[in-house]
Amino acid sequence: MTSVDFPKHKKAKALKPTSRRPAKELCSECGLCDTYYVHYVKEACAFINQQIGELEEQTHTRSRNLDNPDELYFGVQQEMMAARKTEPIEGAQWTGIVSSIAIEMLSSGMVEGVVCVQNTKEDRFQPMPIIARTPEEILAAKVNKPTLSPNLSVLEQIEQSGMKRLLVIGVGCQIQALRAVEKELGLEKLYVLGTPCVDNVNRAGLQKFLETTSRSPKTVVHYEFMQDFRVHFKHEDGSTETVPFFGLKTNQLKDVFAPSCMSCFDYVNSLADLVVGYMGAPFGWQWIVVRNDTGKEMLELVKDQLETQPVMSKGDRKEAVQQSIPAYDKGVTLPMWAAKLMGVVIEKIGPKGLEYARFSIDSHFTRNYLYVKRNYPHKLEAHVPEFAKRIVSQYKLPEK
User: Fold this and answer.
1) What order of strands is seen across the sheet that includes strand 127-132?
2) Residue 4: its pLDDT value, please?
3) pTM > 0.70: yes or no
4) What angle, rounded to 10 degrees, do the helices at 52-60 and 172-181 form?
5) Which of 73, 100, 21 minimizes the C-alpha distance to 321?
6) Within 10 A of 210 (CB to CB), how many other CB atoms are there?
């Protein structure tokens, strides 16, 4: 691959958050435009210049094999597994695998800092990116922040600090921009720990989602769309609330997701060295994808803290995906009794493991393909990666 030769950046004053974004309404607020690396944004931004294939070669020495069903869906990989910590971190969203890897890398001296996201003192869901230098600062960043987050806004601090070995934790759009400017950061070694990501919102959108979905929006600590086809809410008192996917008020929530997320085809974080999520694992387990030797090195640090099992796949997703396309398009919302009943049935006979992950990818890729086609038809051909086009081609989409 021939990499892009960027001009040397100027130590310009960072843009203010209200400054113009070259990606306009498709901006995912990754933070790059808030730094002097804004000079590279037209090449680096995932929503201006989609270049996953080229960056896969740069990062992993090869792009994904589109004829390999697992790589078509889940990207370049050396191995996949399901895992959970034998001694979970208290207060972690799952068992704390991401936090544990970050702490081990920092404590062992592999890295001098970790880019992660805490929350502000005023709002548990308002992201506050930092470069953590202690285990305590890493632990303060545990639990997902389901809002757009300017993780890359701290890039200037990296160069100014003189750090040479860094771990960055982030989602797909952030990591694509990071990989595009990686050679400009002056690092000896960059490690990237990715999480899968889909359907983020701004803070106002999150509030609307909580208020239309949870029984107690003010006490929600974290939530996730899980493999049992339910949204799981964790509350301040430790209680758990579940809401079936099919009972969501789609007619009210259809437009709540950020346009960038509705235009994204990197659910699985293709350019991370190591990915830790849940979508391809049985309920209660985490899904781990090792993409390259750097990712393997990272995972080895915590292998003795994990219980692992091979990935599995069960069921058939295709009919459910095909039915979901017009249902989402029309904003169909089922009565709660029907939604619960459907949830029970699908949990018993529906897709599990990697087949659930494919269900989720298919559902979002078909939806997002239609969104781009309808709203940005001039971008469709260049913006949708080849792997996404192949996945979407399995389904019949509305003509308009």
Assistant:
1) 127-132, 113-119, 165-170, 189-194, 274-277, 286-290, 79-85, 306-309
2) 42
3) yes
4) 70
5) 73
6) 19
